Amino acid sequence: MAFTNHLHFEMSWKALFDVVFVVLGLLFVKQLISSHRRRARPLGPKGWPIIGNLLDMPNEKQHLTFCHWADQWGGIIYLKILGQPMIIINSLQAANDMLEKKSNLYSDRPLLEMAGEIVGFKDTLALSPYGERWRESRRMMHRIMGSRTNLEKFHPVEELETRRFLKCVLDQPDSAHLHNHLCSTAGALILGITHGYCTKEKDDPFIDLADETLINFSDLTVPGAFLVDIFPILRYVPDWFPGTAWKQDAAKFRETLHRAVDLPHEYVKQQLAAGIATTSFTSMYLEDEKMSNEKEKLLKWLTASIVGGGADTTVSATYSFFLLMTLHPEIQKKGQAEIDAVVGKDRLPSLNDRFSLPYIEAIMKEVMRWEPIGPTGLAHRLMEDDIQDRYLIPSGSIVVTNIWKFLHDEKVYKNPFKFHPERFMATKTHTPEPDPRMAFGWGRRICPGMQMAEASMFIWFALSVFNISKAVENGIVITPKVDYTDTTIRHPKPFKCSITPRLEQAIALIRSVELSQD
């Protein structure tokens, strides 16, 4: 009996000790969490009660305001807008540490109520939430377009559409038509790769649909453009309520988006059924495997994403190229001299010439650096608390990178506001400056079509057959103004330039391509 009591006494003490140990452990964990939570947020502009920093956010040229804030508060800036934490990254080192090294935490996208939920762009690759659907889309894209070798099968399409562009410019060299030529050709190029579709030279329905969708996306994703993005509850306001015209607009945007997704996909299925389909991203998947309805839905949204992302970015970069060549004829002449020396004057450059033309490659890099397509890119969303440079970055934060600042940092790029392709050329006395491909994004959210975009830009930039110069009107030389749209994907505003064939054989080369298509 005594032994039993003694044993019971020892077990009671052991149980009590276990309980105390667990409680102390929980208190320790709580203290750690509490200490973690008490860490200082990054510095930033002081907000107002309730609305926070809502009034501090600029309506235009946000990247320039963020640069100004960096001078005051440093490389990582903290804002809070109506309770939503936001981080502005002005430090390239911080961007690499956070978005590249810790991409498992920073690969989500913020929910855009208007563009994503109401119109439906959340199903595109660019705005898709981080998860299995997004990962499967990336795997599908990598399989077909994940390397330069994989893309070689589409080189004939890229070169053909570039030649068609040359013909359009030759027939209508007025700079007023240039942007339309670029949009049509970029759309034709991407639709040829994704759907094997050959466009009409004018008024093509798929091109018009893609252009309309791209304009909608660019307008819808501008931060703060729609009140419903700030107050999501507004989506439930009845349609008859005053001030809800945006809901009718949203319905039109959604209908346009779904037509842009569905119609090209159905075209490929019809071509396959008739046995006349051209090899394309879509046909390769539909032929190779029996697809579930869910997988096929994923495929058509993925290819629509490629059409949207690839066309608009290529147009933006190439239009910038024409602007910069107008302003810098000495750089244009140097590029043409390299092409003449390597390619000659008896044929047009091809993608096989790319790595034999380092100065053209340097021009391409400098265009990307000098005026990045998206100065702040697409925002990321942090999925759990993080510590960076001793600061707490709270879970759910919207994270914006000031790409424009990174690419104009005097500590990284010498004379950053000068257009100077030589900065990327290696010589005995010069080490190339850092590659500007950060313009394509970071980590798991880096642009998956980067290889295709670079190939398209190269073949368009290797315009050996034209001279691009300042326009002359009534004897007055017109110097174009460097001014860009303030949209998610920025384009130069329309400008005047003169586009003329370099040599008589240039016209013959372009016309020979025209004849080969007939």
UniProtKB/TrEMBL annotation:
Q: What is the lineage of its organism?
A: Eukaryota, Fungi, Dikarya, Basidiomycota, Agaricomycotina
- The answer to whether UniProt assigns keyword Heme to this entry is yes
**Domain of life assignment:** Eukaryota
Cofactor (UniProt): heme
What Gene3D superfamilies has UniProt attached to this entry? Cytochrome P450
Q: For heme, which residues are the binding ones?
A: 447
Q: What is this protein called?
A: Cytochrome P450
Q: In which pathway does it act?
A: Secondary metabolite biosynthesis
Which CDD domains does the annotation name?
A: CYP64-like
